[in-house]
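[Q] Does anyone have a clean structure-token version of this?
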Amino acid sequence: MTRHEEMPFLDFRWGVERETHRMLPDGQLSPEPHPAALRPGPFTRDFAETMLEIVTDPLPSIGRVMGELEGLTREARAAVHPERLWPFSMPPRLPEDAGIPVAALGRRAVLYRQGLALRHGKARQMISGVHLNTSFGPAMEGWLAGHTPLGAGEDSFQLRLARNLYGDLAWFSILFGASPVTAEGGPLAVSHRNGPRGYARAGFLPFLDLTSTKAYLDGIRRGLGTVSPEFTALGLVRDGRVLQLNGNVFQTEKEFYAPIRLRQAARAGESGLQALSRRGAGYLELRFLDVDPFTPTGVSEDGLRLMHLFILDGLARPTEPRPTAVLGEDLDRAARAARMDPRALDPALAGGLGTRLDELERWALALDGLEPGGRHLRALDGYRARVARPSLLPSARLAALFEASGMDWTAFGLHIANQFPKGVSHALDYAGV
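[A] Here you go.
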């Protein structure tokens, strides 16, 4: 028997995609092209030429994926030096749109990004986040089939997991929200990134359907085939220059900005939708994590271990079909949580989140029985302590530190970036900032 056959709760693959920006030491976006020293695969660009994306392989343990992410972060810092890597989700002070070149990734990719800029503005596209990709293997699926088999309204365990995680979105806003401030000022929020200033866009909602995997695919295809009067009115061609790929709701499937997406690895010549249609969901892409400013890697090992607990719990709880209207309620709750002042968390909401975290303790104990060190219960206890004292939650801590600094947002971000050690073997302690 393999290790995972004996211990199915560890039969997972984990991958991380972390976005950041290359910054000059004076706080300006780098004018330089993407460095050739950043090898393809682990390093690419997202929306803008300055917007570096660090991508790990899918790996069989959280410890290993964190180790790879730390190594890639060290490599990136060395390759861009003397530039800095921006440490927050919300971008620094930005130039006018003309001063933000989109990523030079090929003609179609450039046109797609030009379309995003036309539709949503470049500033919104410059918001950074962390995506967690998670899948599970046959041992975990076998355990689920024996203990909580699929019900009549469930066609895969991946679909079940997606449904349950949508129900937890408001909790994720509070636990992982770390974007309280924007360079333009305005009110504080738990997560501007997951609120109206960021990716809480209603445009994808009419096309989001989790009643079945087929319904999910059909919804995205409807968006790809539905003409948007709003986007069409922006124009498709101006003075002989193409402005966007098309005037539809989604130019491509990538514009389906749902916070949780069913995915399947595409083979040569396949689109993501074709892969998903032919072989079903292979993994989930979780897109709701803000960049964690308290660690150089942008995501903490404790955060990933907490997500492991939510994922185990979500896989084990059978679901009913979750239509668009119900998903809209999930998204509304999450957006309301994201908009809250992080210094004034509703006590009733904090109490509900505390109860939800208590429900995960059995999974932490089960995992700690399989791996030495008690790391999962320790991670869970750390988050329970933060919820019990909300000033310790990442968004409230970051807001307090920023206000105490007396700096503007860009200067504060550079100050924090300069504090990160060149070796990223441990998280930075912000207590002395």
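[Q] Thanks! Anything notable?
[A] Strands lie at 12-23, 43-45, 51-55, 84-85, 129-136, 237-238, 241-242, 260-263, 283-290.
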